[in-house]
Amino acid sequence: MSSLETTNDLQQLLEAVANQKISVSAAQTQLTRAQNIDDLGFAKVDLSRSKRNGYPEVIYGAGKTATQIIEIIGSLKRHAENILCTRVSPEKYALIHAAEPEAVYHEMAQCVALTVKPLPTTAHYIAVVTAGTSDMAVAEEAAVTAEVYGNQVKRIYDVGVAGIHRLFAHLEEIRQAQVVIVVAGMEGALASVVGGLIEKPLIAVPTSIGYGTNFGGLTALMTMLNSCASGITVVNVDNGFGAGYSASMINHLSDTEDDK
Fold first, then answer.
1. CB environment 129-168: b (16+ within 10 A), e (fewer)
2. In this predicted model, what pLDDT tens digit does every residue of 30-52 receive, in sequence order?
3. Domains of the chain, start order
């Protein structure tokens, strides 16, 4: 029995425990992983994701109407701690804010955040580093994502290789971070440079910023994937959310280890 989707499934599980065909701990595991879905018709909201993954479902705002986003937020509010919606235009946010006045809009990141239950902030911080000012929108998506999930974040922007002395001025601050996110477009060289100077995990984010042969971020992506610096993990083009999410998971592991 891989999931519990009906009352009959639950009855069978309880009978199996009563007949000693399954242990109490095994049954508890199945109950913890049980599917809990709110079917809104246009969306099936995964209400048990935080139990499985540690984080609630995130709303991808692009392609959804403001009304749909509002309904999904209403569903998640009863089960989530912090709600995050990415890729939301200012026009959509105006409608969302009318329905959810406590929702906060991060304009550069194009993210909407709603705190249902405040989370403690991590002792360790994540450094978000950009090559240029033009990469800041993607970097902000990463930074806001990490902050929504209770991480301390330090932003270090516009320190690309064209003026590499700017990077060295912040190098110690970057080295003290528990996880580093490097966001770069053009040829994407900054990730390799930083990766060769630190001993912490580095998540590289290629951006679509650049001239013709940047190919919408493909050049930066290939540079990062082929980096000779060890310890670099690469996410998709412009995927600040993915970088912030992964960095949060790593950073929280560090805090958990410190608590032991």
1. bbbbebbbbbbbbbbbbbbbbbbebbebbbbbbeeeeebe
2. 665 556 877 788 888 888 777 77
3. 36-115 (no CATH), 125-255 (3.40.50.1970)
